[in-house]
Amino acid sequence: MKKLGRIIVAIGVALGLQASAHAGFAEGATAYNNKNYALAYKEIAPLARAGNTEAEHLLGLMYYMGRGVPQDYKQALNWHRKAALKGKADAQYVVGAMYYTGNAVIQDHKQAVTWFRKAAEQGHPEAQQVLGLMYRYHIGGMPQDNVIAYTLWNLAAAKGNANAAEQRSAVAKAMTPEQIEEGQALSAAWKPGMPLPRTSRTGGG
After folding, report:
1. Which of 105, 126, 136 is nearest to 4 (CA)?
2. How far apart are the first and last CA of the chain?
3. What confidence tier does 16 reach under pLDDT thresholds 50, 70, 90?
4. Which of 61, 62, 70, 91 is spaced 20 to 30 A from 199 at the CA atom?
5. In this structure, what DSSP letter does residue 204 have?
6. Nearest to 126 by CA among 136, 116, 111, 134
7. Cα(154)–Cα(188) distance, integer angstroms
8. Neighbours of 22 (CB within 10 A)
């Protein structure tokens, strides 16, 4: 179904890399961004094994993409999970995506929701966008709630997520003015680090 395809397409968005101020990490990140994956692995792997969260995430990406190492989704999940458990939002999003698709783990949409929510509550726009789809289409045990979907897409769109902006516009056509008003109010009241609303007053159904 198209809506599920959109979730799967969205998974790739998190596989970029931000620069980091962690000592010793910058060289590996620079090498990775310059596509010198052998040097990136040489710099990053020891840091990851020593427990550096950013390095764990990057090593997970390298295994996920098969860059500098043989593609190995189990290793990717292992390293991402280490970083995710320490609160790395990008890693939480990838762990959620792997549970959603059943990639290296038994497919479990409820586990996917748990990890997507952790990332979304840190302000991760791709996680917010995908979590919105799960509310919109009643996936992973989420109640069908257009207002919560609209709220999440409003937040993600504000961070530049084009898919979320498109989905927000589409769902708004099926919403009442009261529902849109509630969605706007919920998104305006939320700040990163706060729990995201799980149900709405007007949007269930």
Report:
1. 136
2. 21
3. very low
4. 91
5. B
6. 116
7. 9
8. 14
The tens digit of pLDDT for each residue in 112-165 reads 999 999 999 999 999 999 999 999 999 989 999 999 999 999 999 999 999 999
How distant is the alpha carbon of residue 13 from its chain centre? 8
- Whole-angstrom distance, CA of residue 6 vs CA of residue 10: 6
Residue listed under structure tokens 């959603």: 100
- Opening angle at CA 140, ends 177 and 137, nearest 5: 35
3-state class (DSSP) for residue 145: strand
- DSSP helix/strand/coil, 174: coil
Residue with tokens 């596989």: 15
Residue type, 96: G
Each residue of 42-58: pLDDT tens digit? 999 999 999 999 999 99
Percent of the chain with pLDDT over 70: 88
Residue written as token pair 């949409």: 109
CB atoms within 10 A of CB 17: 16
* Single-letter amino acid code for the residue at 177: P
Extract the tokens encoding 39. 């040097």
Q: Helix 162-172 vs helix 125-136: angle between axes, to the nearest 10 degrees?
A: 30
Token pair, residue 101, equals: 């698709």
Measured CA to CA, the distance from residue 59 to residue 37 in angstroms comes to 10
